[in-house]
Write a structure and sequence with these properties.
This protein is of the alpha+beta class. The protein has one domain. It is built from 7 helices and 9 strands; from the N terminus they run βαβαααββαβαβαβββ. The strands form 3 sheets. It has a 5-stranded mixed beta sheet. The longest helix has 18 residues, at 155-172. The two termini are 23 Å apart.
Amino acid sequence: MLLADNSINTSAMSDTKDPISSSSASTIPEDISDSFTSRRKVVGTLGLAGTALCASSIQASAGWLWKKKDDLPIVKVKTIPSDSRAGRTGRTSSPSKKIGGFPDQWTRMQGRNLKAYASYLNSLKMRNISAQDVISAHAKQRGSVWNTLPPRQWWKRMGYTLQVIDRISSDMKVPVKEILSAYRCPQYNARCKGAKTHSWHQANVAVDVKFDTSAHNVTRATRSLRDRGLFKGGVGSYSSFTHIDTRGQNVNW
């Protein structure tokens, strides 16, 4: 059952050099529009020898996403007031902040970014998604190509999408079963069967997710919440999972 609209806890989107230390890391932008807002240049570099191919191709693949490479879509997410959240989640306790169990080679490639990204994800204070859930979707290999964490400059983009998924889980009272895919570096994306060259996963605003219910139920609930103003983005229906992104324009498939 879906919640009726609650009061909105919003604040203007800001961009900081270090999203982890920013006090606004988990706040939500209040402006909503199909237009785009200019942002500082966000082309990132991972700075890791083991991920040089992905890092070098980020700039080349990013230009198609927005009118300019320094543009970001305006995104809006309604949040549930803290006093309305109790008992609305499928989890029996808050998500664990511990991470680990990733392939050794992949962990070495991420360096200090791994711990820092986990800290950022934990700062979002999500009720139904852990940093482990998200990072596990990155620690994957196809052939000789490893996926990577997103560029630091793009971390906050994923925060909005994750908050949407967190809200859906609370409203449906169904836990998140698995995050199948989040950010994909261009080289890794090219190895994913059926992935589009211009996939929004490469922009760090898209998630493929499974819940402990049918994907059809999740898709229907997500589109209902989106159409009531929870967010602006794409919702893709698949047999075993749902694609959710916060691109700033409503699209269904």
